[in-house]
Amino acid sequence: MKKFYNFNFYFLFFYCILYTYGCNNNEIDKPDISIINVQLKFHRFDQALFSVKPDSIEQNIPKLQNDYGDFFNLFCSRIINIGETNNRNFIPFLQKYITDYNMLMVYNDCQNNFKNINGLTDSITIGFKYFKYYFPDKNIPEIYFYMGGFNQSIVTSNNVLGIGLDKYLGKNYNYYKRLGLAKYQCYKLQKQFIVADCFRAIAWSEFSFNDSVNDLIHNMLYQGKVQYFIDKMLPDTEDSIKFAYTKKQWDWCLQNENLMWSYLIDKKQLFITGEMDIKRYIDEAPFTTVFPHESPGRTGVWLGWRIVCNYMKKNPKVTLVQLMQETNYEKILDGSKYNP
Question: Residue 258: in which H helix or E strand, if any?
Answer without folding.
Answer: helix 247-266
